[in-house]
């Protein structure tokens, strides 16, 4: 085992250019943790927020960016029995994924699905953990319900469309171009709305209203989402790309018995994340291994080009997931 590793660090808060290659000590797994020799690491918007100084890692986490990765188990800490050295895994990370090695609780790792490569597996943890817990556990989506997911061509969106449609929901989505809308329909969306040309509120209300909306836009989408909900509908907020503050008339929430909730994944307890991993292994991994669901890949960048990967995700030109090739 080497003592040092290549890694990407955030030199100061700022734009993509503040990401720089560095040499870091290889972390050591503590009790209940595994050390992963990383092949590919996922790139996600929370990484960009952390780089900009707007999303601090938990005190116990690595300051390096990177919340998901795939590779091989390089070492196991005390009290780990589920994994052994050499196992191929993909895992949710507390941080540190932009590096050759990272540690994570053993219960946050999942086996690489049969027939899938490490590049594709690196796209699974962050989005599938987020979608499963917010759409199906917090949001309570059921077969036959109308589900609206914003940002349908994003990593979250492409995952949510596939999971929801595969499990029997009617899926509507928004995207920023006709080309992106076509991708969303190919993934299982019944209706893909180009938000530059069409009013999603009108379209969804004409269809009877949404039973569940998953939103990462925020801002002026919040009151529009409320109008688009059916009576007894649920809105789950997972990000605020357009800001977290807006004026909202809560009389509609009361009169129509609406639920507004939300969550972020990273601050949740290790036990909560372990429970999500267990649910994914039981309910979702069989669908992936059967070929019914697959991550949508946008692009792969060398680890040293992490800045370019961040520029890509912040351009919103991507469709699906972006990864860093570490090895």
UniProtKB/TrEMBL annotation:
NCBIfam families: quinone_pig3 (TIGR02824). It comes from the Bacteria. Residues 14-324 form the Enoyl reductase (ER) domain. It holds the Pfam family ADH_N. It comes from Albidovulum marisflavi. PANTHER family: OS02G0805600 PROTEIN, QUINONE OXIDOREDUCTASE PIG3-RELATED. Transmembrane segments: none annotated. This is NAD(P)H-quinone oxidoreductase. InterPro entries: ADH-like_C (IPR013149), ADH-like_N (IPR013154), ER (IPR020843), GroES-like_sf (IPR011032), NAD(P)-bd_dom_sf (IPR036291), Quinone_OxRdtase_PIG3 (IPR014189). SUPFAM superfamilies: GroES-like (SSF50129), NAD(P)-binding Rossmann-fold domains (SSF51735). Keywords: NADP, Oxidoreductase.
